[in-house]
Amino acid sequence: MGIDSPITSLSGIGEVRARAFARLGIYTVGDLLSHYPRSYQDRGNTKALCDGDPERDCSYILTVITEPQLRRIRGNMSILKFRASDNTGICEITYFNQPYYKNQIRHGAKIRFFGRVIKTKDIYKMNNPKPEAIVPGKDLQNIVPVYPLCEGLTGRIVSDAVTAALSSHLPDVTEYLPEDIRRDNGLPTLQFSVREIHRPSDSQSLEKAIKRLRFDEMFTFGLAMRLARKGMVRASAPRMISGDMSRFLSVLPFSLTGAQSRALGDIAHDMTEGDGVMTQPMSRIVSGDVGSGKTAVAAGAAFIALNNGYQAALMAPTEILATQHMTELSELFDKLGYRTALLTGSTSRSERRKILSALEAGEIHLIVGTHALIGDGVVFKRPGLFITDEQHRFGVMQRAALSEKADDAHILVMSATPIPRTLALAMYGDLDLSVLDELPPGRQRVDTFVVDESYRARLDAFISKQMSEGHQCYIVCPAVEDNSDEDDEDTGDHLSAATEYSEALGKRLPQLRVGCMHGRLPSVEKDAVMSSFISGKTHVLVSTTVIEVGVNVPNATLMIIENAERFGLSQLHQLRGRVGRGSAKSYCVLVSSKEGGNSRARLDTMRTTYDGYKIAEKDLELRGPGDFFATQYSARQSGGLKFRFASSIADEGELKDILSAADKLLERDPELSLEENIPLSGKIKQLADSAHGTVN
Ligand code: ADP
Ligand code: MG
């Protein structure tokens, strides 16, 4: 069994705790060992009371000099108080609501307290410091890991479980990086890294372990992207004879922007190149700012296929987006005399049967859908073009699955994420990229404001005013962190911030109908909440960032983002792009009470900059490349890839080094089929499956 043993095989973990671990997605010993600490406390910095630091947590080795006194107050509240000292002073220590320390802290004991020291007139004081008994013959850890927690799990429980897992299963951790890659990049072994990440011996070893693990993260991601792209590259695809688009342009309700024309020119060129029946398949990404009109480009590309007698498919990541595309595209293609159909998970069986047979007979020309399109039984008569929208929301490898369907088809990917070009090239390798860096004319600017909590009443009034004018409003709250406090005994709060927020808002503004959406809702309910907002039944949609990326509700004129400092700039830009889609004046309000760091300057960028590419550059500069990618590919969605270490990547140089290691490896072993690369290949499949499994 080894690393795949259930965690219940560890001492101290029974069914109840196993259920709590399951909430964090931890089922096996291996899962537990890759449940990495969120951060570390430096408890090695020991001070004397007279040098006590009121600003920062430090360690103080003190002897308890009075009997701890526990006082119960009102219901469950309690206060535990005692005194402790070193040679330089006496400290009064108080614990609020942690009565269990009464049994752990005894008069006369020597204890390392970790916390802040305040000096008052005649005595030092500490509140709720972390106590660790000093026992002869047992060293205290100086770098203490802080784990992500959830309800039912304390830091102590997780930490003990990890200790048990390390002592019995560390030898079962198998290396997957080939020896020479490790050597060339100066990386320690996986066993070393797993041990040090959980139980750092010192800060140098921890740094080495982190370097190795972040290498792994970006290296496997880079490999997966490259392999997926290679999967997209077909031997050949039908050559389109005509790239003429005049019939299409004549039914389009607007004229194309320059950027749209250029992208369609690239596409027509790719699809018509050569002079045989078959040609080198197109494999192109269209990246465009929010609202830059990617759908029209997709439609134009589909038109080329249809006009040449081939079929086209457009796959969107959610049912709502697929339905929205269908509405827009069927109107257009009806006029051109082509048949369209929508295929999603909720298409009825009989309907599905009809659609599939019409598709196979070549009677349906354009099919729009969700990942149902890559399911069994979907067969095209004359496949010409496969388009995926908002590609990063599909598992990386799902694109490879798609391209199996699209054997012999051209491939077009629409990405809603403006990524600076240099980084896009580093990331995807030899990518064919068309950039929509121009917005359609007449688009009005979404006026953006940065406010703090003191504006709350005015903000409520503003919401009411917008609603009374018949408009709608989005409010985005960040998801609550698994555990916002490092307190060992604290259990994580899993209630979505959105739920509480919408209840409070409903009380303040009872005349409004408020919908609430968060990652934990089952997807049917998400769809219901979303549909109700789209149809205008609800006025306000309170949501975590699971809010649909491409959703188009032109009647929404107000976007409020709470705790805006917690979002990346690109993410804020995406969210802001949900409004300003109709003719009415739209607004974006960034609520932030945080003063420190560069958060104000960052948010001011949003107030003054409206170009998604400029914002992406700025975001990249502020966050570093690893973190930038991590938010692009994971944070926005409840599923998606998990990046834990990417944010510590130092700069573009390090990222490029890692990715060029991936390129070098693939040059030597394009399919990762050599003996020494099999474990790595398995690791990448795992990564792909996990990204795959989370698409709703
Ligand atoms: P996105 O790139 O964010 O997917 P869409 O394709 O949804 O953007 O387009 C946003 C809006 O702009 C749609 O209402 C679309 O009809 C409109 N639009 C697209 N291209 C043009 C254009 N060239 N001129 C005017 N309006 C356009
Ligand atoms: Mg779109």
Keywords:
23 helices; binds magnesium ion; 7-stranded parallel sheet; Rossmann fold; 8-stranded mixed sheet; globular; disordered C terminus; alpha/beta; binds adenosine-5'-diphosphate; OB fold (Dihydrolipoamide Acetyltransferase, E2P); 696 residues
In short:
This protein is α/β, with parallel strands linked by helices and 696 residues long. It has 23 helices and 25 strands.
Describe the fold and architecture.
With 696 residues, this protein is an alpha/beta fold. Among the domains are: 44-140, Nucleic acid-binding proteins (OB fold (Dihydrolipoamide Acetyltransferase, E2P), Beta Barrel), CATH 2.40.50.140; 241-436, Rossmann fold (3-Layer(aba) Sandwich); 447-609, P-loop containing nucleotide triphosphate hydrolases (Rossmann fold), CATH 3.40.50.300. It is 39% helix and 18% strand. It contains 23 helices and 25 strands. Strands 2, 3, 4, 5, 6, 7, 8 and 9 form an eight-stranded mixed sheet that branches. The longest helix has 30 residues, at 203-232. It binds adenosine-5'-diphosphate (ADP) and magnesium ion. The site of adenosine-5'-diphosphate (ADP) has 15 residues, from helix 10.
Topology, pairings included?
Elements: H1 15-23, H2 29-33, E1 39-42, E2 58-64, E3 69-73, E4 77-86, E5 89-96, H3 101-104, E6 110-115, E7 118-119, E8 124-127, E9 130-133, E10 143-146, H4 155-169, H5 179-184, H6 190-198, H7 203-232, E11 237-238, H8 246-251, H9 258-272, E12 278-279, E13 283-288, H10 294-307, E14 311-315, H11 319-335, E15 340-343, H12 349-360, E16 366-369, E17 383-389, H13 398-405, E18 410-415, H14 421-428, E19 432-436, E20 447-451, H15 456-468, E21 472-476, H16 497-508, E22 514-517, H17 523-534, E23 540-543, E24 556-561, H18 569-576, E25 587-591, H19 599-608, H20 612-623, H21 625-635, H22 652-668, H23 678-693
Parallel strand pairs: 5-8, 13-18, 13-19, 14-16, 14-17, 15-16, 17-18, 20-25, 21-23, 21-24, 22-23, 24-25
Antiparallel strand pairs: 1-10, 2-4, 2-6, 3-4, 4-5, 6-9, 7-8, 11-12
The structure holds adenosine-5'-diphosphate and magnesium ion (MG).
